[in-house]
Specification:
The protein has two domains: 164 residues, P-loop containing nucleotide triphosphate hydrolases (Rossmann fold, 3-Layer(aba) Sandwich); 106 residues, 2-Layer Sandwich (GMP Synthetase, Chain A, domain 3), CATH 3.30.300.20. Helix 6 packs antiparallel against helix 9. With 304 residues, it is an alpha/beta fold. The chain is globular, with a radius of gyration of 20 Å. The site of magnesium ion has 6 residues, from helix 1.
Length: 304
Amino acid sequence: MTLDEFTLTEFKCGYVALCGAPNTGKSTLLNRLVADKVAITSPKPQTTRHRLLGVVNLPQAQILFLDTPGIMDPKTLLNEALVRTAVSALNDADVVVWLTTPQENAREREVILSHLRFLTKPLIIALNKIDTIAKPEILPLMELFHTLRPEAPVVPLAALQGDGLPELVREIIQRLPVAPPFYPTDHLTDQTERFLAAEFVRERVFHHTSQEIPYAAAVQIEEFDESERPRLVKIRAVIFVERDSQKGIVIGKKGERLKTIGQEAREELEKMLDCQVYLELWVKVWKNWRKDPRALRELGYGIS
Ligand SMILES: Nc1nc2c(ncn2[C@@H]2O[C@H](COP(=O)(O)OP(=O)(O)OP(=O)(O)O)[C@@H](O)[C@H]2O)c(=O)[nH]1
Ligand SMILES: [Mg+2]
């Protein structure tokens, strides 16, 4: 993205929370903005489970984006932790971007609006996935959102294609505080390679399983051996599920599904780590971990 047209006199830097209902494209937008894969994405809701940092460096500003879990009506202890994580990012941000879509229903919208009700910091509404509707439908939708929060600009967006990004960035920069850069310019994210390795495996589980399984799956890295780097990194990961039947499905007939998950995750990891990766995957049952406070803590789903 070339942003030379920005005519700012002072350098700006601040945190920008990307929040919204599940599946609105927050992580897709983060990856597009950072131009790297720092967050996993999937067509299924509730993919993101942590607050993730993505840094964008521009000539006049450094924008510290915070991707967040989708905000919804929590049904499990895990859901409650996810909403708390998202709300913590709202509290810490200098600017909030509410990502919404034409597909979002009124109930989902109400849940978000209830969290934004007492927000006093600058808000921008990003209407994502405009590629999914006809052009004449865009303006009336933008007007609808304008009536909901008249003080917030409404920016139409297609994050997947990268449309509307310069306009969104422009609105963000206008609202950022004047401050020196917080991170060195080569610092794209806070997530460790170990964390991203677990996430890349979880993304493949999301893509290759359905119904309850993606939500009942958590990934823990048991070993991340860099002793042979830069030639090879050896990773051993465990995919936890909640029931024996789910374990069988993740493994698949003759281990086929687990093999595919492993192959695809390994290819992504090799790109990220820029070396050969040996990935060993195990599937284990941790009964009802989503309702177990100790399991949530051990798996890293506390407030981040
Ligand atoms: N058509 C279209 N699809 C999009 C666009 N942006 C994102 N998507 C798709 O929407 C789905 C959800 O994207 P994510 O980025 O995972 O959404 P999210 O808001 O991070 O979801 P959670 O982490 O579950 O809250 C994926 O299949 C994306 O490819 C867009 O602009 N247009
Ligand atoms: Mg996400």
